[in-house]
């Protein structure tokens, strides 16, 4: 992962799969009298949302909030490999494990989770549980915006890239 402490206006960050753009950085004094840097950011793909919001956070709290810089292009290739890799799901998948991976904000963990659910979905004639399907959709949503950003494409095209990789 990239350095998570150095930012400039226009940089992109990822907040649980939502790609955001830093629109302003302010330095201000906190309650202790120390200077701190505050990032103001908004969703990058805001045209897809009805209500656009602006968020702010102190740089020192980024890791606590699971906000990070986007993965690199090399890491994207690794992520696509995870989605493309043939795996077998021998053991019934524990939904708690999925939720832990989902909450990790680690794109590779989320990609592996997505692949496992996808495999299970393909193998079960009667489908998967509602909770696994919801986790599948949420995992897909988390990966889509970041892939769209790195591939310089639309969210819809990024979803097609993921689905193609899952089928390999």
Question: How would you portray this structure in words?
Answer:
The structure is a single chain. By secondary structure, the protein is an alpha+beta fold. The protein has two domains: 12-68, no CATH class; 73-167, CarD-like, C-terminal domain (Methane Monooxygenase Hydroxylase, Chain G, domain 1), CATH 1.20.58.1290. The chain contains five helices and five strands, in the order βββββααααα. The chain has a five-stranded antiparallel sheet with strand order 4-3-2-1-5. It is elongated and about 60 Å long. The two termini are 26 Å apart.
Structure characteristics:
168 residues; Methane Monooxygenase Hydroxylase, Chain G, domain 1; 2 domains; elongated
In brief, what are we looking at here?
The chain has five helices and five strands.
Itemize the secondary structure elements and their pairings:
Layout: E1 12-15, E2 18-29, E3 35-43, E4 55-58, E5 67-68, H1 73-84, H2 95-103, H3 107-123, H4 130-151, H5 155-167
Antiparallel strand pairs: 1-2, 1-5, 2-3, 3-4
Helix pairs in contact: 1-3, 1-5, 2-4, 3-4, 4-5
């Amino acid at each position: 992962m990239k350095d998570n402490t150095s930012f400039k206006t226009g940089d992109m960050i990822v907040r649980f799969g939502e790609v955001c753009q830093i629109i302003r950085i302010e330095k201000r004094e906190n309650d202790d009298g120390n200077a701190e840097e505050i990032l103001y950011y908004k969703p990058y793909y805001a045209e897809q949302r009805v209500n656009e919001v602006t968020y702010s956070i102190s740089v020192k709290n980024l890791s606590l909030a699971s906000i990070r810089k986007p993965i690199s292009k090399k890491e994207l290739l690794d992520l696509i490999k995870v989605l493309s890799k043939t795996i077998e799901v021998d053991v019934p998948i524990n939904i708690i494990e999925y939720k832990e991976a989902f909450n990790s904000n680690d794109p590779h963990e989320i990609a592996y989770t997505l692949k496992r659910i996808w495999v299970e979905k393909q193998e079960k004639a009667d489908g998967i549980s509602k909770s696994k399907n919801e986790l599948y959709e949420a995992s897909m949503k988390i990966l889509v915006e970041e892939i769209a950003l790195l591939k310089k494409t639309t969210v819809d095209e990024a979803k097609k890239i993921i689905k193609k990789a899952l089928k390999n």
